[in-house]
Amino acid sequence: MSKDKNNIPEEEQNQSVKNQVEDTIDEAIDEVERAKEEEGETPEDAEFTEEEKLKEDLGKEKDKFLRLFAEFENYKRRTSKERLDLFKTANQEVMTAMLPVLDDFERALKEMKKSGQKDLVKGVELIHNKLRETLNSKGLEAMKVKEGDTFDSELHEAITQVPAPKDKLKGKIVDVVETGYKLGERIIRYPKVVTGK
User: Fold this and answer.
1) Where do transmembrane segments lie in this chain (predicted)?
2) Contacts of 149 (CB under 8 A, 6+ apart)
3) CB 112 within 8 A of CB 124
4) Which of the listed residues 54, 89, 124 is the one where a domain comes to its end?
């Protein structure tokens, strides 16, 4: 059964390369020993100590190579992980800077709806929707928080506590003052909420 090199996991490929290097080095040592035996040299010969030195040096170099190879693999793994993290959050600054603009559009829409100018409201809604969809396509997602949800300090930012208008809202969210947003899985702005006491 032949395996396609692209389907073999990277760790197996690296292990295979290490094994090949070790086998090549071991074969070279064996060849040197055979050559010495064929020449009829005995362990008492002066060159045997030189052979031992060469073996020792070769062993040290082999060890150095394997350590360097392992360090390089760790470096590759670390940099590829850092690169992926960077790609995921590269536009976080831009997204964070655009959030106040999105908030202003929402406030403007609320006020325009009060004025009763339907054409003006429709135009601003189109622009608002286009901006929101563009930001969504880049990974920005509004956090869904509504009245009655359980307050979680890991996900929400409480700006104040008010007496709960209903008993069932005690310790829960009474109002959402500012929408929270996530970029991928990372929260870039926590929703600001009012909780009931």
Assistant:
1) none
2) 172, 173
3) yes
4) 89
| pLDDT < 50 regions, the chain | 1-6, 43, 45-46
User: First vs last Cα of the chain: how many Å apart?
Assistant: 69
Summarised one tens digit per residue, pLDDT across range 45-57 is 445 688 888 888 8
**Integer Cα distance of 153 and 68 in angstroms:** 46
Q: pLDDT by residue (tens digit) across 36-85?
A: 676 655 545 445 688 888 888 898 999 999 999 999 999 999 999 888 87
Which of 72, 89, 106 corresponds to the end of one domain? 89
Q: Indicate the SS3 state at residue 3.
A: coil
**CA gap 99, 30 in Å, rounded:** 69
Strands 140-142 vs 181-183: parallel, antiparallel or unpaired: antiparallel
Rounded CA separation 130/150 (Å): 32
Supply 145's token pair.
């928080």
Residue 81 and residue 13 share a domain: yes
Spatial neighbors of 79 by CB under 8 A, at least 6 apart, are: none
E-state strands within 48-184? 140-142, 157-162, 173-178, 181-183
Pairing mode of beta strands 157-162, 192-196: parallel
Note down the domain range covering 156: 140-197
Q: How many domains does the chain have?
A: 3
Predicted TM-score (pTM) of this structure = 0.54
